[in-house]
Design brief:
The structure holds 2 protein chains of 2 kinds. By secondary structure, chain A is an all-beta fold. Chain A is 0% helix and 47% strand. In chain A, a hairpin with a 5-residue loop joins strand 6 and strand 7. In chain B, the strands form 2 sheets. In chain B, strands 2, 4, 5, 6, 9, 10 and 11 form a 7-stranded mixed beta sheet that branches. In chain B, strands 1-3-8-7 form a 4-stranded antiparallel beta sheet, with no helix packed on it. Chain B is globular and about 35 Å long. Classes of the chains: A mainly beta, B mainly beta.
Chain lengths: 111, 112
């Protein structure tokens, strides 16, 4: 699975959009980009995934660059409850069922 | 609330004790996972079960013994643990070969 790189931390103001970057420059053509988050004292929570098209669901939007070397997770209106560690993971959709977490980015939403 | 239930939420055990962690899901998922998470670190995969058979063991010491008695239940049997095994133990499930994992909130284990 391709290595992903994320800044260690960022913050944003409540009500504003939070844009979380992820670099995956060695991603291969059949690898998807997955995002999970982990709120303090809880298990990780699936957010969204995509291959090459932009994706949106009720939680977030995922923007993947045309060359697929990087992506951005967008939380359109961050709330205090969005404070968490966000993990960007590149993984093929088939093969053995391993999901490997990197260090993630800690998002702090300030009032 | 999560759809994956882990019990107990907290566990304190001595190094000579035997205990078990339990995990249950009723989503019809056929893959189940154990992860270990130390403080301020990402979760680390320990075991994967697929259709009640162990498919991945990430070189976990034998003092951790997983068991999948049926498609809804996953146990982790603990024996002769060390203080450095203190961690949050997370269970997850998914449709087989799908990496959209559903996690429980974990069992926080302290080994004294």
């Amino acid at each position: 699975d391709a290595k992903t790189t994320q800044p260690p931390s960022m913050d944003c103001a409540e009500g504003r959009a939070a844009n979380l970057p992820c670099n995956h420059s060695t991603i291969s053509g059949n690898e998807y980009v997955y995002w999970y988050r982990q709120i303090h004292s809880q298990g990780p929570q699936y957010i969204i995934h995509g291959l090459k098209n932009n994706e949106t669901n009720e939680m977030a939007s995922l923007i993947i660059t045309e060359d697929r070397k990087s992506s951005t997770l967008i939380l359109p209106h961050a709330t205090l409850r969005d404070t968490a560690v966000y993990y960007c993971i590149a993984r093929g959709y088939t093969g053995n069922s391993k999901l490997t977490f990197g260090k993630g980015i800690t998002l702090s939403v300030r009032p | 609330d999560t759809e994956v239930t882990q019990t107990p939420k907290h566990l304190v055990m001595g190094m000579t004790n035997k205990k078990s962690l339990k995990c249950e899901q009723h989503m019809g998922h056929r893959a189940m996972y154990w992860y270990k998470q130390k403080a301020k670190k990402p979760p680390e995969l320990m075991f994967v079960y697929s259709y009640e058979k162990l498919s991945i063991n990430e070189s976990v010491p034998s003092r951790f013994s997983p068991e999948c008695p049926n498609s809804s239940l996953l146990n982790l049997h603990l024996h002769a643990l060390q203080p450095e095994d203190s961690a949050l133990y997370l269970c997850a499930s998914s449709q087989n070969r799908d990496v959209t994992l559903h996690f429980g909130n974990g069992t926080r284990l302290t080994v004294t």
